[in-house]
Design goal:
With 173 residues, the chain is α+β, with helices and mostly antiparallel strands. It is built from 3 helices and 8 strands, in the order H-E-E-E-H-H-E-E-E-E-E. Strands 7-6-5-4-8 form a 5-stranded antiparallel β-sheet, with no helix packed on it. It has a 3-stranded antiparallel β-sheet with strand order 1-2-3. The mean pLDDT is 89.
Length: 173
C-alpha cells in the first residue's frame, strides 16, 4: 500500500503545526529554516523541495508497511507550507514509533550498499569518477550510509548515490 486515508485527527494535527518562521524560496526550490539562539535568528538551514518529498514519503511508506496510519505528500503538494508541516508530523511520528518499538526506517539507506556495511567498496559515479571508501551506517531511527575514508576513521559523510557500479574491494575492517 503506498497511500493512506488521512484521519480527521491527522488532518487537524497537520493544520495546526507551526512551521516556525520557515520561508519558501521558489526560485531555488528550498524551504529556508531559521535557527534561533536566545530568541534571535542566528542563522539558516535549507531543505530542498525534492529531498523533503523523498524523505517524508519514505517515512510514510515505512509507517504504512508497519501497519501505522501515515500520510504521503502528493507531488502537487511539493514546495508548500502544508508539505513542510506534513514532513514535520511524519518525522515526529517516525521517531515516536521507533521509541515505542525500536524499529528503524531504512528510507535513507542507499539500496546499492545495503548489506555492504563494514566493507570497503569502489564506486563508479555516472560521470565515470571512481572512489573507494568503507561503508558505514549512522545511528538513529532513520540511518543513512556513511563514506568512511580510512580503516581507522570513526565517522564520515553521508553517501551520495546512486552509483553506476559498486564493487567490494576488501571485507576486513
Amino acid at each position: 500500500m503506498t497511500t493512506a486515508t488521512m484521519t480527521a485527527e491527522t488532518e487537524a494535527a497537520i493544520a495546526n503545526i507551526n512551521i516556525g518562521g520557515v520561508t519558501i524560496n521558489e526560485e531555488q526550490q528550498l524551504y529556508v529554516i531559521p535557527s534561533y539562539n536566545k530568541g534571535k535568528v542566528s542563522g539558516y538551514s535549507c531543505l530542498g523541495f525534492d529531498y523533503l518529498l523523498q524523505q517524508a514519503n519514505a517515512v510514510a511508506d515505512w509507517l504504512i508497511s508497519e501497519g501505522q496510519q501515515a500520510t504521503r505528500i502528493p507531488a502537487e503538494g511539493r514546495g508548500t507550507p502544508r508539505a513542510y508541516g506534513t514532513y514535520l508530523a511524519l518525522m515526529s511520528q517516525g521517531s515516536a514509533y521507533n521509541q515505542r518499538t525500536g524499529k528503524r526506517c531504512n528510507g535513507e539507506l542507499e539500496p546499492q550498499l545495503i548489506g555492504l556495511e563494514n566493507k570497503r567498496v569502489e564506486v563508479t559515479y555516472n560521470d565515470g569518477r571512481t572512489e573507494r571508501f568503507w561503508v558505514g551506517k549512522s545511528c538513529g531511527w532513520m540511518p543513512c550510509h556513511l563514506e568512511i575514508k580510512r580503516r581507522d576513521s570513526t565517522g564520515g559523510g553521508a553517501v551520495c548515490g546512486p552509483y553506476k557500479s559498486v564493487r567490494v574491494v576488501d571485507s576486513r575492517r
